[in-house]
Amino acid sequence: MRVELEPAFVLHHRPFRDTSLVLETFTRHHGRVGLVARAARGPRSRFRGLLQPFRPLLLSWRLQGELGTLTGAEAASPAAPPAGGERLLGAFYMNELVLRLTGRLDAHGELFDAYAIALAALPSGEPAPVLRVFEKRLLQALGYAPDLSRDEAGQPLDPEGWYRYEPGVGLAPARDDSHGALAGSSIVALAAERLDSPRALRDARQLLRSALDVHLGDRPLRTRELLARLRR
Fold first, then answer.
1. Is the pLDDT of residue 79 over 80?
2. How many CB atoms lie within 10 A of CB 230?
3. Tens digits of per-residue pLDDT, 35-46?
4. What's the 3-state SS for 159-194?
């Protein structure tokens, strides 16, 4: 199979043999694709300096078996990578989520678009709301998202009420805001992707982390650990 000029991002790369790279890429129409970029680290490589995370690319490749061979790469638009600190770690966090939760050659065009939008917003926006909206859209694209409009009994969500999220079950009504209950107004804000208050952000983080952790398993995310150290 040959693919030409496919919109893509590099999620991760590692050295391969003397001068080559193995790339994990995320593409618009083919999902996650593993590619070998031959001689990409050579001093005269046409790919040198181009195959970096967070840079919008157009990639061409030939696929035979599990790993394809990169045949072409060019910049799709000027790169605007997130600056250091939490913004950069947030971008790596998105990469880690895509790597952990998607399979190779499983196309998710909606998720690709959500990734590109979040990546473009990180350099200038507050990272927390951008990442929460990306997590929500990722869960939706993969079919894992909780219903944010109704409780576990099918009743419409009450913005004035309190809820607990139970993975695999949904939002269960709670008596009050004790013991980590979620405000109904926060869930409404998350559904609308308008996380304008500290309470809404805190509740969205708690709900989305619970929903994600079910599918991430026991192996912790490296970027979460790094972010916790940075904040300390």
1. no
2. 11
3. 999 999 988 888
4. CCCEEEEECCCEEEEECCCCCCCEEHHHHHHHHHCC
Q: Phi/psi class of residue 193: alpha, beta or left (left: φ > 0; alpha: ψ in -120 to 50)?
A: left
| Cα 102 from Cα 205, distance rounded (Å) | 21
Domains and CATH numbers, the chain: 2-75 (2.40.50.140), 86-231 (1.20.1440.120)
With a pLDDT cut of 90, the percent of the chain lying above it is: 79
Which among 70, 27, 68 has a CA at the least distance from the CA of 50? 70
Q: How many CB atoms lie within 10 A of CB 37?
A: 25
Q: What are phi and psi of 209, to 5 degrees?
A: -65, -40
- Indicate if the pLDDT at residue 7 is higher than 80: yes
Q: 152 near 167, Cβ under 8 Å?
A: no
**3-state SS assignment for residue 156:** strand
Q: Residue 232: is its pLDDT beyond 70?
A: no
